Structure to design on (385 residues):
């Protein structure tokens, strides 16, 4: 990736200036809102903000121009995400459509699918969610049992998905379903685009320890989608689904790390305020966290731009462990006050509780380590019953 030369510095200044000029008025109150565990915060206004971004051409920045994107270079995309996070702008509501499904359709979709779905993603007119995990197939994605059968000009779906982020506000879901009866593991799976606002689909939010409900159960009971709403060929769903997961861990991770740095700075300030900063062990662990954040950035920059292979599992493993550790450091910085609340969790308690899930969602640590062992290090495959 190109170094931070004069053209890139000029681009950064332009992004920062635009954000400063536009995070004003009612949008000013969005600063710092949203994100994992906090998706409920000013959601409708954040949708309006995202559409404001779209009108100015600041959504889908890495998509090719011919597909409605801005066509930015990899270095410019990194700069945009970093400046966006540094400005305090709110967490994006269209991440799943823009960063996951959009690149998947650009790579594997038909021209008709691209024409139908990409413009509405770029304009934030339709929101998406990801239908992968199931009650008996969480991190072991190849064990999915949700089925889809071809009936005339439609696919008919039956089954259940779980831990589906933002399904309660989504219009569509890309679903990994078993379309070949009797098939097992990676075989016989297909990647379908399914409308959620129809009879036969039930979305049920799951209340978490933090009191919020951004994850959902999704039930398909003879739900339907068109025969042309399959990405790739029938039975090719595993390959498409893995490509989507590769797109998920792209340049936006650099912006995520800016948010992490802001959280770390706030934890340090809290330790200084409460007096726990006087504990040399806590200070040493906070210093290690600062170093760990630099490691995250170095790894992300080293792997960006290459093929989305199993090496991306290393990045997920690194940031999930780091962020969960930050939640624990926040409790130590708060001291004894962290153990009690008056009915409402404070920001540090929410951080601690939600980061318990960081090492599970998006691929559990155990699964990521298995991927690294088998596909990166070439170790013998894990025995499965």
């Amino acid at each position: 990736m190109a170094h931070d030369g004069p053209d890139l510095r000029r681009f950064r200044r332009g992004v920062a200036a635009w954000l400063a000029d536009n995070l004003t008025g009612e949008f000013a109150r969005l600063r710092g809102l949203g994100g994992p565990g906090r998706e409920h915060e000013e959601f409708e206004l954040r949708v309006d903000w995202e559409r404001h971004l779209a009108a100015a051409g600041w959504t889908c920045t890495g998509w090719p121009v011919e597909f409605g994107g801005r066509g930015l270079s990899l270095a410019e995309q990194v700069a945009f995400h970093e400046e966006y996070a540094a400005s305090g702008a709110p967490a994006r509501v269209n991440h799943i459509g823009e960063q996951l499904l959009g690149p998947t359709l650009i790579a594997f979709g038909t021209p008709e699918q691209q024409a139908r779905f990409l413009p509405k993603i770029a304009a934030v007119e339709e929101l998406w969610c990801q239908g992968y995990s199931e009650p008996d197939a969480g991190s072991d994605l190849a064990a999915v049992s949700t089925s889809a059968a071809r009936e005339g000009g439609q696919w008919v779906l039956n089954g259940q998905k779980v831990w589906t982020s933002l399904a309660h506000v989504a219009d569509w879901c890309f679903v990994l379903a078993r379309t070949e009866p009797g098939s097992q593991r990676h075989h016989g799976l297909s990647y379908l685009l399914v409308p959620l606002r129809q009879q036969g689909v039930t979305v049920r939010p799951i209340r978490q320890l933090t009191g919020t409900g951004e994850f959902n159960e999704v039930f398909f009971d003879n739900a339907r989608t068109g025969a042309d709403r399959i990405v790739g060929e029938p039975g090719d769903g595993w390959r498409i689904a893995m490509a989507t997961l590769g797109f998920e861990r792209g340049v936006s991770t650099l912006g995520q790390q800016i948010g992490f740095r802001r959280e770390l700075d706030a934890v340090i300030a809290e330790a200084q305020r409460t007096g726990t900063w006087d504990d040399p062990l806590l200070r040493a662990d906070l210093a290690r966290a600062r170093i760990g954040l630099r490691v995250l950035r170095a790894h992300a920059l080293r792997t960006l731009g290459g093929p989305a292979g199993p090496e991306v599992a290393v990045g997920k493993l690194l940031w999930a462990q780091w962020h969960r550790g930050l939640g624990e450091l926040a409790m130590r910085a708060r001291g004894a006050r962290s153990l009690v609340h008056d009915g409402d969790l404070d920001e540090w308690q929410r951080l601690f509780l939600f980061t318990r899930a960081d090492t599970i969602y998006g691929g559990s640590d155990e699964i990521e380590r298995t991927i690294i062992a088998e596909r990166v290090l070439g170790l013998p495959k894990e025995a499965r019953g």
Notes: Strands lie at 128-131, 147-151, 154-161, 172-178, 189-195, 201-205, 216-226, 230-231. The two ends are 43 Å apart (CA to CA). The CA atoms of residues 105 and 111 lie 9 Å apart. The first strand starts at residue 128 and ends at 131.
